[in-house]
Specification:
By secondary structure, the chain is of the alpha/beta class. The chain has helices at residues 2-16, 21-29, 39-55, 68-79, 137-142, 146-149, 153-163, 181-200, 215-228, 230-236, 238-248, 252-256, and strands at 57-60, 95-99, 108-110, 116-118, 125-127, 133-136. The strands form two sheets. Strands 1-2-6-5 form a four-stranded mixed beta sheet. Strands 3-4 form a two-stranded antiparallel sheet. A hairpin with a 5-residue loop joins β5 and β6. The radius of gyration is 19 Å and the shape is globular. The model is unreliable at 258-274 (pLDDT under 50). It binds zinc ion. Zinc ion (ZN) is lined by residues 156, 160, 217, 220, 278.
């Protein structure tokens, strides 16, 4: 019964809220990493995007006007991780708030000694537990092209949202039946420790050093790499690649057709260590 209502509602939304072809093409063309997607995948992505936009508000703040193109671009990148998963992973909150620039969040937190800290730095993006995703539009625009930016802000924040579905953004999202939490944690912790050791040695890594911040950031940054530069992740951390491929039910490296051992230059894509926190 509920399933029938859900299907009916889905069909009604897909019919009633279609994205104009020209707008869709423009949005897809502004995201070069989608160039490897098959026509069938893009069609499925488009349906997901329509359903996502029906469920979420994308609203400007501090005078920022969200254009139709910005709206669709943000929705596409948000839907890339859940292309083969249930959109319900994004249930429990309503809005994406878009700022005209980086923003200083108002939150405070208490450390183990009971001292209350106030956030000080400006953020490019933030995923708030149970609340909105907040994005700086210039940072979204700058990270649309992975080859020049080496990051993808929207995928990053939505990976945090998926991670938060079962509590804190701790790098362990809710796993489907058949995937072992212990195996997940072992694989991720092994890779995380290796990555942190490489940072400590001062190694110039192709993966954003920001991944060393915490296991939660490691998951979010590696999710960006998984979707936008899959061959890089498969080369650097093949076990994590395999884990994320099972979790997200996608094999993006197979799309690109790049061989596992294809040489990659370190630091390609203008990686820099000074990305603002996100
Ligand atoms: Zn983050």
């Amino acid at each position: 019964m509920f399933e029938a209502i859900r299907r009916w509602r889905r069909e009604r939304v897909l019919k009633g809220a279609a994205i104009p072809n020209a707008l869709w093409r423009q949005a897809i063309e502004s995201l070069p990493f989608l160039g490897f997607y098959t026509a069938a995948e893009l069609e499925r992505l488009r349906d997901k995007v329509v359903l996502f936009l029906d469920a979420k508000g994308i609203v400007g703040a501090r005078g920022h006007q969200v254009t139709p193109l910005q709206r669709v671009v943000i929705a596409i990148e948000a839907c890339v991780p859940v292309l083969n998963l249930d959109l319900a992973l994004y249930d429990g909150w309503e809005n994406i708030i878009v700022y005209p620039d980086e923003f200083v969040p108002g939150w405070e937190w208490e450390d183990e000694a009971g001292v209350v800290h106030k956030s000080i730095g400006a953020l490019a993006g933030e995923a708030m537990p149970g609340g909105p995703v907040v994005l700086s539009w210039p940072d979204v625009a700058a990270s649309a092209d992975w080859d020049t930016a080496g990051m993808n802000l929207v995928i990053h924040e939505f990976a945090h949202k998926i991670d938060m579905k079962n509590g804190d953004a701790n790098g362990c999202p809710p796993l489907p039946g058949g995937m072992s939490t212990q195996a997940w944690q072992t694989t991720m912790a092994t890779a995380y420790e290796d990555f942190c050791a490489r940072q400590d040695r001062g190694e110039d890594t192709a993966i954003d050093p920001y991944a060393a911040e915490s296991p939660g950031e490691f998951f979010a940054v590696l999710s960006e790499v998984f979707f936008a530069d899959a061959a890089l992740l498969r080369q650097e951390y093949p076990d994590v690649y395999a884990l994320l491929a099972r979790f997200y039910r996608q094999d993006p490296a197979a799309r690109t057709g790049l061989r596992f051992d294809e040489p990659r230059s370190l630091g390609a894509g203008g990686r820099s260590a000074d990305h603002n926190h996100r």
